[in-house]
Amino acid sequence: MNLAPSLSSHLIVMAIAFGVTVLSVPLVRIIAVSRGHVVEPDERRNHELPTPTLGGAAMFLGFSVAMLAAWTSGRFDITFTGSSEALGVAGCALMAYTVGLIDDLREISAPAKLAGLVLAATTLVIGGVSIIQFRVPFSSVFILPLDMSYLITVVWLLGMCNAVNFIDGLDGLAAGVMGIASLGFFFYVLKLTDLGLLADSNIGSLIAVIVVGICAGFLPWNFHPAKIFMGDGGALLLGALMAASTVSVGGRVEDPFSGQTFFFYAPMVIPLLILGVPILDTIFAIVRRTVRRQGLATADKGHLHHRLMDLGHGHRRSVAILWAWTALLSAFVLWPVYNDQQGDAIVPFGVAAFGLLLLSAFSPGLAVRRASFDAESPPTDEEPEATPGAGDDPEPSDDDVGGSNVHHLDEARRAR
């Protein structure tokens, strides 16, 4: 007999998470503005007006109320009764959000943030949510000893939090990508439960559907032009929740099943796959600033967030493209899951093809990167000065650097 909570029960909880989040954002925004917690525009950011942060508070409130509603409704008794996992997830979420909130209010050091997230992961493990079985792609499942289970769970949460934090670079990008990925993951968990591959008490589907709700509730206020940012508090909260959800599902299923490897890694792999170029961009930025003996936190406009728009895409279109890639990848892997596992063999190749196609679509950014690096490099004594003439192109001003793609390519030609 299937005692798992029904789809309608999950949808009610999602609606509560959505409603609480979308309605509480204006209050959080007023508080943030009144207390001066705003992000000023600078050369590294895309917004033009001072924008309040601390939006993660509304997301955390939405999560808390939704969890409380699920607990008191009686529809999720099998999930909450006789298990400490819900307390572990709630404690982990609280600690991760608190670490991010403190960083939003007053910047904390990287070691302090790391220690806080390790404590959040420890709370998750103490609550009983940890990676028991670790699946290696295209290989077998390994049963982990307790010490390795704890270590990998901690590393998993740290990676998930950093993945969400990384993609929070354009208005609506992180909330949209994680909301879509969570929705795909939710339908995957429902299928596993229906087939009896997951325990009816598994908390993964509840966490995933709450993430969908809080992301959807936050997006109307965060889509470009954003009226509020989620801040580190919101980003680390989403990362912790998705870590808990994927661990509770991907780390528990031993039976082979279509899409298992993909969706275990999905919340991290999807951002890494669709944002592979900006990851390389970040590496190049570190190298660029190291060569110039600048601090790694020195702001510039050398990242793909700006270059996507230089290639002709507006802010909203750039975000929509990345949303579409997330949805397409999830739908592609869900297809065999809901069609009697027909097409399993093409899933890995299809995902790889999508990734290559995406990188190919953004390949002009490679030329732009070289042009931007040349434009940003300080002049040296060996660099000859151009002799002005009637047929020469005018020298661009600093404000023009990072303008249109055509301008960058002109810079590259002059540099050569």
In short:
This protein has helices at residues 7-34, 56-73, 77-80, 85-105, 110-126, 146-167, 173-194, 204-222, 231-250, 260-274, 276-291, 304-310, 315-337, 347-361, 364-376, 405-415, and strands at residues 38-39, 51-52, 133-135, 141-143. The protein is an all-alpha fold and 416 residues long. A two-stranded antiparallel ribbon has the order 1-2. Strands 3-4 form a two-stranded antiparallel sheet.
Descriptive tags:
two-stranded antiparallel sheet; 4 strands; two-stranded antiparallel ribbon; mainly alpha; 416 residues
Helix content: 55-70%
Q: Give me the count of strands.
A: 4
Rounded to an integer in angstroms, the radius of gyration calculated over CA atoms is 23 Å
Q: How many distinct helices?
A: 16
Question: For the report, how would you describe the main beta sheet?
Answer: 2 strands, antiparallel
Strand order of the largest sheet: 1-2
Secondary-structure class: mainly alpha
β content, as a range?
A: under 5%
What low-confidence regions span 5 or more consecutive residues with pLDDT below 50?
A: 270-280, 363-371, 380-416
Mean pLDDT: 76
Distance between the termini: 71 Å
- Strand/helix succession: HEEHHHHEEHHHHHHHHHHH
Name the shape in a single word. globular
